[in-house]
Write a structure and sequence with these properties.
single chain; about 250 residues; alpha+beta; Trna Endonuclease, Chain: A, domain 1; 6-stranded antiparallel β-sheet; 11 strands; elongated
Length: about 250
C-alpha cells in the first residue's frame, strides 16, 4: 500500500503542488512546471522498498522523440551530460532521482531542471553546434590567416558606431580593409546586411565577406538581402577555409 506523506511534501513547496494517483506505487506531481506548448511536466514520485524517487516513466524522452531521436553519438553525449550534471539517473527510458522528505524541495527543483534541458535538447544541440561554428571560424582567422596578416582585430567597428560591428577585420592595409562576418542564422544575416549597407553609405573602401554556417537556417528574404549587400559569400566554413585566403589576398594586393 502506498504510504507517501503528501502533506509533508506539499508543505515543503508551500502548498504549490498537489498529487493524484498514477500507479499502485506512484503519484503524479502537479507542479507549476510547463513545456512551451502549455503541457505540464510529467513528474511522478514513486516509493520502492521505503525509498522515494522522482521519475517520469519515460515520458520526457517520448516527448523529445516527437522532435528528434537520440540517433547520433553527439546527441547521446549531450543527453548523457545533462543527466550527469543534474544528478539524475537513467534506466530504460526512465529519468529518476532518489529523494526524501527532507530534500524534496531541492531535489524537485533539480529534477525539473533536468527535464527542461532534456525536453529542449534539440535547441541546446543547435546552440552547441552554432557556438562550435564560431569557434572554428575564429580559429581559422587567427591561426591560418594570422600567419599572413599581422593586424587582425575582432569586434571591429568600421564607422565607430555602436551596433555596427564586424566579427573580424584584416587591417594590414588601412585603405583596403577586409571585414569578415560569421552568419549562423537570420538574425546574424540581418546584422551583417545592416553593417554592409552602413559601411557602403559611409564611402569607406572595403571588402565584406560573409561566411555561413548553413544557408538553410536563414529565411530566403534575409538571405537575398545579404546577397545584395555583401561583396562575397561562402556557403560553408569549409569553402571559406579552402578558398578564402586566395580571395582575400587578391583584394589586398
Amino acid at each position: 500500500m502506498l504510504s507517501i506523506h503528501t502533506e509533508t511534501l506539499s508543505a515543503s513547496m508551500n502548498g504549490k503542488i498537489s498529487f493524484s494517483p498514477a500507479s499502485p506505487d506512484a503519484l503524479r506531481i502537479h507542479a507549476p512546471f510547463f513545456h512551451e506548448d502549455g503541457d505540464m511536466y510529467d513528474v511522478f514520485i514513486q516509493e520502492k522498498d521505503g525509498q522515494l524517487f522522482l521519475c517520469d516513466f519515460g515520458m520526457t524522452l517520448m516527448r523529445l522523440s516527437y522532435k528528434m531521436d537520440l540517433d547520433t553519438e553527439g546527441k547521446n553525449k549531450s543527453f548523457s551530460k545533462i543527466v550527469a550534471n543534474n544528478c539524475v539517473q537513467f534506466d530504460g527510458g526512465n529519468l529518476f532521482m532518489p529523494t526524501s522528505y527532507e530534500s524534496f524541495f531541492s531535489d524537485l527543483m533539480q529534477y525539473q531542471t533536468a527535464v527542461s534541458k532534456v525536453s529542449n535538447l534539440e535547441v541546446l544541440r543547435r546552440e552547441s553546434i552554432s557556438n562550435l561554428f564560431f569557434e572554428q571560424f575564429s580559429h581559422f582567422i587567427f591561426d591560418s590567416l594570422g600567419r599572413t596578416y599581422q593586424n587582425i582585430q575582432s569586434k571591429y567597428k568600421p564607422t565607430n558606431e555602436s551596433g555596427y560591428e564586424v566579427d573580424f577585420a584584416i587591417l594590414d592595409k588601412k585603405d583596403r580593409p577586409v571585414y569578415l562576418m560569421a552568419v549562423k542564422d537570420s538574425v546574424s544575416a540581418l546584422r551583417a546586411t545592416s553593417l554592409c549597407l552602413r559601411v557602403a553609405n559611409s564611402g569607406i573602401r572595403h571588402t565584406s565577406i560573409a561566411v555561413h554556417d548553413s544557408t538553410a537556417s536563414i529565411a530566403s528574404r534575409d538571405r537575398d538581402a545579404l546577397t545584395n549587400a555583401v561583396d562575397k559569400q561562402y556557403t560553408s566554413l569549409s569553402d571559406f577555409e579552402s578558398q578564402g585566403a586566395s580571395f582575400i589576398a587578391r583584394q589586398i594586393a
